[in-house]
Structure formats: C-alpha cells, structure tokens
Amino acid sequence: MLLLMTLALILTTLLTVQPSLRQKLVQKAPASLWTLLPVSPAFSVWTQEDDSLLQELTLAQIKEETPNCFKETLRLINRKNPLPRDYTPSLVPLSGDLLADPDTAAAYTALAAGAQEPQRPPLWIVSAYRTRALQEKLHQKDALFTLPAGASEHQAGLALDLASSGKEGPDFDQTGWPDYIRGEGVSLGFILRYPKGKEAITGVPYEPWHFRYVGPLHAALMAERDLTLEEYHALLSGNPQAFLSWRGYLVCWQSGPRFRQPPNTTLLELCPTNTNGYILTFKKTS
Ligand SMILES: [Zn+2]
C-alpha cells in the first residue's frame, strides 16, 4: 500500500512538474528559436559559427575558385517575387521537345528510371520549361491554375507538370504518383510545390501534378520541417547569422556581395533567392 502511495505521489509530482519545466524552457529560449528547435537529434539544428573564424569570400573569388557552385534551383518564384523580364535560364533537352534546367532534367530521368514498377501506371510530363509568351497565353486562358508571366517556375525550367495514364491535373492525385514522388522524390530533390493546406502561403491552389526541383538536401530539410519554399526562405532569411546544420552540411541565407564561409567547409552551392539574397550550402570537410 505504502509502495502504491509512493508511486502515485511520484506520478503526480512528475505530471505537475513537467508542464512548468517545459514552460520554463520555452520562456528561456527566444520565441523565434524555440519553434525551430529540433525534435530529434537526427534532425537539422541551428549552429552559430564563431565570427572570428569565418572566412570572407567575394563573388569574384567564388567565380574563380568554385565556378560550378552557381545554381538557380532555390530561386523563389511567385506573384510577389516574379522573375526579371530578361531572365534567361540554362536549359537542356528533357523529353521530346521539352526543355528543363539541367539538374531538374537529371533528377527527373533518375525518378522515371527508378519508378518503373509493374503495378504503377506510366509517368509522363505534360509541361516543363515555358517561355514568357507561352506563360502569358496560358494565364489568359486559365487564370485560376496558371500564374501570370514572370510568376511561374516553369519559366525557369525548374518545375514539371506530371500526368499518368490519361489522368492529369487534379485527377493525377488518384494515381498514387503524387504520394510516391513526395516520398521517394525527396531524395532526388523534388518537392510538391503547392501542397494542400498551404494555399494561403503559396498563393496557389493544391496542385498534385506540379513538382519543383530544389536539390536533395533542401528537399529533405523542407520535408523534415513540413515547409513550402516560401516558408523555407523565410526560415533561412529570418536567421541570417545562423547556419542550419544537417548531416555534414550547413545552409544559410546571406545578402552578399561578400559572403561568410565557416572553417573546414567547402562551398557547394550559391543560389540567388530572387529576393535580394543568396542561399549558400557548405559541406563540412572534418
Ligand atoms: Zn506547373
């Protein structure tokens, strides 16, 4: 009996102490940071690098030392952040006369090759790169599902509209492909760009057929935190002094034109955000 009473007392104490302890922790952490704290050690964490150890890089230095790090794959393109009128993407053939950004095309080829399962209907591409003129024409026909010229990722060759066995548009949702690509496609760098429930953030209705290439690391970080591209940009630009650390990589937003590089890292990617900044990705070397 005494043992039972003691156990009950311990349990009651734990239940009452736990919320107040949690509250204390919440109060201790800055509000903006608390929401970003990882829920598991396997997840990404924010790190503050020692300012005195950061190496300063200029664009000229980067162009000379790591010319292949320049990417377009994280550019945020929407109604608020349209592409410059003279924006010219670099494109490669994708399928038939369709064109796409080189990384997007390579990732789609890998996705299509790895997804040939007998029970799954064949996958095909309805739309990839679009010219500004074509985007304008499509928008005039259907202003609900087609963004105005400048606001579409298709103009950068970074988005693919997919279909399968006569099911395209909203019907593509019934094919099982959207869930498959949301799972497997993340490791190849794809995100479902306009998900259900995030319409107020993306400004676009749910589009189960429209996938955007952002690269495997960033797709994984967005999936981990259930973020749209708009939210991912807000997360990084809201913490410009910090580096988001994940499995040997560091990601950060910087305004340029001079950039900060943490020690013992190599610069993998430098990507303009389309919002007067850059997202930099580093790989730790030790
Ligand atoms: Zn699309």
Task: Report on this structure.
With 286 residues, the chain is of the alpha+beta class. The protein folds into two domains: 43-74 and 227-286, 2-Layer Sandwich (Phosphorylase Kinase, domain 1), CATH 3.30.200; 82-213, 2-Layer Sandwich (Muramoyl-pentapeptide Carboxypeptidase, domain 2). Helix content is 32%, strand content 21%. It contains nine helices and 13 strands. The protein has helices at 2-28, 31-34, 59-65, 102-114, 132-141, 177-184, 199-202, 216-225, 229-237; strands at residues 45-47, 55-58, 92-95, 98-100, 123-127, 159-164, 190-192, 210-213, 243-246, 249-254, 258-261, 265-272, 278-284. A five-stranded antiparallel β-sheet has the order 1-9-10-13-12. A four-stranded antiparallel β-sheet has the order 5-6-8-7. The chain has a two-stranded antiparallel sheet with strand order 2-11. The longest helix is centred in the first third of the chain and has 27 residues, at 2-28. It is globular, with a radius of gyration of 22 Å. The protein starts with a helix and ends with a strand. Residues 7-41 have low confidence and may be disordered. Residues 127, 154, 159, 161, 210 line the site of zinc ion (ZN).
